[in-house]
Design goal:
- This protein has a seven-stranded mixed β-sheet with strand order 3-2-1-4-5-11-10. Strands 6-7 form a two-stranded antiparallel ribbon.
- It has seven helices and eleven strands.
- The protein has two domains: about 5-110 and about 195-225, Vaccinia Virus protein VP39 (Rossmann fold), CATH 3.40.50.150; about 115-190, no CATH class.
- The chain has about 230 residues and is an alpha+beta fold.
- One of its GO terms (biological process) is tRNA methylation.
Length: about 230
């Protein structure tokens, strides 16, 4: 992962943060807390004695200005409308301390940037992952799922080599050994961001500035810094 998300590694190093979703300190005690909505994923963390909160980033159950830094990867693009995506960004800024930073990654519409395919595209073209089969509309599990689902106005994405529009459903099957019903495909909503779209939304958030923005491996990313109170 360090080879893929180089900027995440640098962000962690610059803040002396151990790999985690968020990092906070009270007095002389520093620790990391993960945040996930999935009970099963939280259970895995609990079994490994990791600090975890079961919640989503529309409502983080902590007081204002508690975290030194926050890392949010591959989350915002799953919220199904612009208002929710904006609310989630505002909530991340709310809980970080003045001067603290928030690193956000979202999936990019532009998977081919400067003639270089993202790692995601490379993996699909090379067909290295078994999970690719679950993305195929002709696969048995996905075909059954599509026949059972209610009519939707969103397209089910299956080409896997380019994005034709920004909002779609993607057949997905968990590769996690702990996941329940691991053989079952589900449809996940995605909103892929075009260049400058994420920064435009972040510029509307009160009390923070865009510290950095960049493209990395098929993702648009921003680093937000909370202003002093």
């Amino acid at each position: 992962l360090v080879d893929i998300f180089v900027r995440v590694f640098h962000f962690i190093q610059s803040g002396q943060i151990v790999l985690a979703t968020v990092h906070t300190s009270y007095g002389c005690c520093s620790f990391q807390i993960g945040l996930d909505r999935s009970f099963e994923l939280c259970k895995i963390c609990y079994e490994k004695n990791l600090n975890i909160i079961q919640a989503d980033c529309l409502f983080i159950p902590v007081a204002d200005c508690r975290f030194d830094a926050i890392i949010c990867i591959a989350v915002i693009h799953h919220f199904a409308d612009e208002e929710r995506r904006f609310r989630a960004l505002c909530e991340l800024v709310r809980v970080v301390k003045p001067g603290g930073k928030v690193l956000v990654y979202v999936w990019a519409f532009e998977q081919l940037k400067e003639h270089q395919p993202s790692v995601y595209l490379q993996s699909i073209m090379a067909k290295k992952h078994d999970s690719v089969q679950s993305f195929n509309e002709s696969s048995p599990s996905t075909s059954q799922m599509l026949s059972d689902m209610q009519p939707s106005s969103l397209p089910v994405f299956s080409k896997m080599n380019s994005f034709e529009q920004q909002d779609f459903l993607l057949p997905w099957k968990s590769s996690c050994a702990y996941a329940s019903h691991s053989s079952r495909s589900v449809l996940r909503y995605y909103h892929v961001y075009k260049e400058n779209e994420l920064e435009t939304a972040c510029a509307l958030i009160r009390g923070c500035t865009i510290y950095d923005r960049f493209y990395e491996q098929g993702n648009w990313a921003v680093v937000l810094q909370k202003n002093a109170c």
